[in-house]
Amino acid sequence: DHVPVHPKRRFEIDLSSKYPGQKVVISTFKEFVKVDFINASSEAYGNAVGMLGDFKTGKTFGRDGSTVMDDFNEFGNDWQVHPADNMLFHNTEQPQFPKRCVLPEDPQGQRRRRLEETSVSMEAAEKACASLTDELDRKDCVYDIIATQDMDMVGAY
Q1: What is the pLDDT along the chain (157 residues), one digit of tens a residue?
Q2: Cβ(20)–Cβ(27) under 8 Å?
Q3: CB–CB of 62/69 below 8 Å?
Q4: CA separation for the pair 151, 120 (Å, rounded)
């Protein structure tokens, strides 16, 4: 079997001492980061502010905390890290503010690229992700493989 060059890493923050059964799980794979909120409740996240938006309504807000943003490209640009923000990572890579982030080719799931022009077929991606039991994970897995043209992306799940 093929062993991935970039192992998946997983970190759990257990909130059970204050919110029983709740966790924040951070997973990394290659240059991708995924954050899952396990058993999230309004009690724990109902007053959260920031780029995750409003827990109760699902609305996403700009940095000002009041501008509702429905366009995820606009939202991402608004939340781009600024020089005055605290450093989260050890290294910085381009683009850095004021240069804009590089937008994904297909940010809203619309397949703009014709599949026959890709090196990985939809069928191959679906087969690679077929063992995933969660339907949304399976869909995300297929999307990630097609978007990156990297069959190893199945390792992120």
Answers
A1: 454 556 678 899 999 999 999 999 999 888 888 889 999 999 999 888 888 888 888 899 999 989 999 988 888 889 888 888 887 777 777 888 888 877 766 544 444 444 445 688 899 999 999 999 999 999 999 999 988 889 999 988 8
A2: no
A3: yes
A4: 8
Q: Which strands sit side by side in the sheet containing 23-29, from one edge to the other?
A: 9-14, 23-29, 32-38
| pTM of the shown model | 0.66
Q: How far is CA 1 from CA 5, 80, 127, in A?
A: 12, 39, 16
Q: Is 76 helix (H, G, I), strand (E, B) or coil?
A: helix
Per the CB < 8 A criterion, the answer to whether 23 and 15 are in contact is yes
Structure tokens at 48: 């959260």
Q: What is d(CA 81, CA 19) in angstroms, rounded to the nearest whole number?
A: 30
Q: For residues 12 and 37, give the distance between their C-alpha atoms in angstroms, rounded to a whole number.
A: 10
User: How long a stretch of residues is the chain?
Assistant: 157
